[in-house]
Specification:
There is one protein chain. With 67 residues, this protein is mostly helical. The protein contains 3 helices and 2 strands, in the order H-H-E-H-E. It has a two-stranded parallel sheet with strand order 1-2. The longest helix has 8 residues.
Length: 67
């Protein structure tokens, strides 16, 4: 399907939206729902490093997040 029809923001858009938050607040944001082709699944990828260096997190297999 056309990616423009997907109703949620891209990770880069979310990072831009919250870029002025302090690191504690940004660390609460965990990017989830990553399909098998997403470079964020590879901890050696530039995309993964960019997310981490920007203060955000990615969910990992079997993570438990208390709400």
């Amino acid at each position: 399907r056309n990616i423009s029809e997907i109703p949620h923001p891209f990770i880069i858009e979310t990072m831009d939206l919250f870029k002025k938050e302090n690191n504690f607040e940004k660390s609460k944001i965990n990017f989830i729902h990553l399909n098998h082709t997403n470079p964020l699944l590879d901890s050696n990828s530039a995309a993964f490093k960019k997310v981490k260096e920007s203060g955000f997190n990615t969910a990992e297999y079997k993570d438990i997040i208390n709400l």
